[in-house]
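Protein of interest.
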Amino acid sequence: MANMFDYLSWRGDLSFLDSPFNPIDNIILSQLSYFTMDEIIPELKDKTGISIDLAVRIFDEKSKQPGFNFTSQFKEDPHLIRALGSSRRFGNCQLFGYENLIDTDRQLQFSAMCIYTGDGYCFIAFRGTDSSIVGWKEDFNMSFKEVIPSQIEAVKYIERMSPKIKGHLRVGGHSKGGNLAIYASSQCSKKIQKRIKKIYCNDAPGFHKKFLLSEGYAAVKNKIQSYVPQFSVIGMVLEHGYDSTIIKSSESGLMQHSLYSWEVMCNDLVRAEKTTAGSRFVNKTIREWLDKQDIAHREQFTETLYNILSAADVKSIYELEKTWFTSAGKMLKSLTHIDDETRKFVFKTIVELFRSAGRNIETFMKQE
């Protein structure tokens, strides 16, 4: 089961002129946006960029310095950027326009960068959320907010950077980053929209119906290329006015959200016929449950659940999946520390969720 690292071994010696940009290149550059580039890529106001090869050398030099503390959201990230730097395909790609904003008061986590691929295109990559509960909460905030701060920043970014970019544009991202790619592309000026040739959306949450009916969305809808793994949760949240291509993953459950697990063959992602029964069950259950909750209840439940998870010391969504039995006990214990009215609301909402699950259990029980 080959992944993006195998692809770099197979085709890393071919430039984008030798072998055109493909879906695997999309997930690689979308993943690259997660790499911490502070003090490596020139500041946003600087029009010059640096090659990935040079960025790797700067990173390696910094890593030798006393007190260097690199925080990686994915353990494979340092290996990926080194593999990119040593390849002919990506080594000379120019990185510039890096921006990284975190504002806990606004519940804002936003990061983006621009990458010249040497074929007359620039890939604008928006970073998604990491595996932290805080990061995933921002995704679920979309269930009750029509616009989140990161979406506003994404529009500002593409408007600010586009005049500095030569050539055509590709825009993309993973998870929330894919949502930002679509949102920014739809809300930017028509002049910029004409330059955008493709929008890549990788297992990203959707939008409210009002957005899907907007003029801006209609202008870019046909440029969207969406991918989701066989077991997708985040990529099924809210409404999607576009079709998604289903991809095979070497992982199971929520771990399929990781782009590192997506299977590749030659110069393309490996397709699957349909999502898993488990994914369809979760998707149908959550959709039905959300439809029964008004905006105020969605917000109250999301905030309360986040507080419960925080009190239970659950740090990441993957940790929750692996230690669900222990975590469930901690969460139940933390419920004793909230007021009666909120506790009743939480139990009532959870009961409604289980009822929805019960109504949709046949989806899960059906044979593949």
